[in-house]
Amino acid sequence: MGVRALTPDDLDWVVAVLAERRKLLIPHAPIFWHPAQHAARIHRAYLARLLTQAGARGYRTDTAVLIAAPSPPGWIVDDARVPGEQWDTPDTDAFWRAFTVDCGGDPVRFVCPRYEQERGAFAVRVGLTLAESWWLKELPGSQGGQAGLTVELPGASAVTTAAPPVYAPPGPMLLLPEVANPHTAIPAALSEAPRHGCAGIVVNQRPDQAVLAVELRRAGFRQHCDYYTGNL
To answer: N or C: which end of the chain has fewer CB within 10 A?
Structure first.
């Protein structure tokens, strides 16, 4: 498969391809991934800035695209799509090989929504390891709250976090990046999130935190997004 670097001339095509991917994800988390009114325009401006000013690496074939955004000391890959979400194809091997040739040895973080199982399997196939998972519980009925607030919880740190600009949930997410005591933190988060106008709760869980996973599942959370890391 022919792989070439993305250019600004590709932006309209890239925006359309990635919009189709987001459309497929929305039913899995309609509050978390509620689309912003002008998502395409916002995303185009963001990608243009990444590719022309921020030093991102972008690759495409006739049907597939991958963009690696700088995340010192390495890269983060979120905006990527292959036809039919079939990641075991020559296209994916070709653009990952091009990325590796350009940035071999660099750390990379690959974002894999749990609903895209083949994407996660591809991450493992290219030598990446599951580093952490986000668990999600959506909270219908939010009337909107303020992002950027620190929320004190027993057994965890938490902050109210705004969605990326391409999404527009009715309130921020209550993010728990680290949980020390699942037995106290999860019930407290369920109580505090609505008080702060949050539209959902996101909890970060490492693979070695088995007790946290049990508590999250018991409380109605679902494994929402996996993050794989390693060196190219």
So the answer is: N
The answer to whether 197 and 144 are in contact (CB under 8 A) is: yes
Chain CA centroid to CA 148, Å: 19
Nearest CA to 103 out of 129, 79, 69, 130 is that of 69
Q: CA–CA separation, 139 vs 45, rounded Å?
A: 30
Determine the Cα–Cα distance for residues 217 and 230; give it in Å rounded to an integer. 27
109 HSE (CA, 13 A, CB side) = 14
Domain range list for the chain: 4-130, 132-230
C-beta of residue 91 within 8 angstroms of C-beta of residue 58: no
CB atoms closer than 10 angstroms to residue 145: 19
Residue partners of 8: CB distance under 8 A and separation at least 6? 48, 51, 52
Is the CATH number 3.40.630.30 carried by domain 4-130? yes
Tens-digit pLDDT profile for residues 1-23: 589 999 989 999 999 999 999 99
84's tokens: 């039919």
Convert the pLDDT of each residue in 28-53 to its tens digit.
999 999 999 999 999 999 999 999 99
pLDDT band per the 50, 70, 90 thresholds, residue 91: confident
Element (H, E) at 122: helix 117-125
Residues 6+ apart with CB under 8 A from 112: 119, 120, 123, 225, 226, 227, 228
Which residues make beta-bridge pairs with 203?
Answer: 135, 176
